[in-house]
Amino acid sequence: MVNQEANGSNSRTRSSSFTQPKPKLLRPFNTAEVKILLLENVNVTAVEAFKKQGYQVETYAKSLDGQELIDKIKDVHIIGIRSKTKLTKAVLGEAKNLLAIGCFCIGTNQVDLKTAADKGIAVFNSPFSNSRSVAELVIAELVALARQLGDRNTEMHQGNWNKVSKNCYEIRHKVLGIVGYGHIGSQLSVLAEAMGMTVYFYDVLQIMPLGQAQPVESLEELLAISDFVTLHVPETEDTKNMIGEREIMKYMKKGSYLLNNARGSVVQIPALVKGLESGHLAGAAIDVYPKEPASNGPHFSDYPDLLKTKNLILTPHIGGSTEEAQRMIGIEVSSALTKFINEGATIGAVNFPEIDLRAISQDDKDTVRVLYIHRNIPGVLRAINEIFADHNVDKQYSDSKGEIAYVMADISKVTPEHLETLYNAIVATPANIKTRVLY
What we know:
The protein has helices spanning about 5-10, 45-50, 65-75, 90, 115-120, 130-145, 150-155, 185-195, 220-225, 245-250, 270-275, 325-345, 380-390, 415-425, and strands at about 35-40, 55-60, 80, 100-105, 120-125, 175-180, 200, 215, 230, 255-260, 280-285, 310-315, 370-375, 390-400, 405-410, 430-439. With about 450 residues, the protein is an alpha/beta fold. Residues about 1-20 have low confidence and may be disordered.
């Protein structure tokens, strides 16, 4: 027999012994409405996210340069770009109100990072959101090269039926050599193994292999054992011109294939052409170039020798150009920028110390958040804490990166009348680069 009283008591909703306090919605002191400029057809997910926050958003489908870019950047607080817009020292010098830059892509070499940091401008990107898209493109290129699909497709469009099997292969049981075993390289290794390939990789860091992939000790060793070599490294001084005539003609196997979906500066184009024309390389796939057109159209004219070679797949830097990747990039970068604008968090910034503080409770009516970007010199913390001395410091976090340092501090017992006095005192410190107060 069921005890009705007990059963009834069990059905009652139980209250939690822990209630998460609601975060206080902060607004900036002494700052106009946030203006955002998005160039190069940044994904609609970012546009919607910013508009949801109440920001003013202006969008352009193309990149801007010269005076047009300078005129547009003068008054904005945030600019979002992809890979074609160049934010140089001269351009950033005109950006009087700029707080942050969002690179809606992997790389940040289109931005003068040091100048941005010196001006207190945080730069955010999305280094991993398009990893799967690039890895899948490489798999497609491996099959296309092994079967000479690019040449057969061109011939068919010309009305030429050329059914051949000579020098066409399966990729199963072939050796894939991956240069750079980061997020893209490691995902690629799993996909390639599923296709029956044997995977080796070379990386300057010691990285735990996935599946049956095996590391080798040198680039030369990797080149010598690989049927396909694919590059997935960042652009650094060490990777510029990494693959030249020596690597192709001396170390890569005759009849092997080279794929570059990393950075255009990694492969020397004349050496690649020589490898293809001599027959030492059986084919190649190139998605990135030392010099790339600034806009779509008939502008790819800097490398005429590439257009003459057989079994060469040329694509216009589309490794991460999928709807899925662009949507994820839009979400990731807009989220990072929103947290920086609204809360001061710099997690994910490439040129700034990465710090954050837990949210201020909605009940803390007289608590403000100070965001103090300053030159990294001795005595700054002593000076700033003397300014805070008349108030209670609830929490504080300070970190530095090179010549730039950043202090986040939540200060309580700050009345509206004290806000301007507090702000002016901080801005007046000799090391100040940029200060914001959120309340």
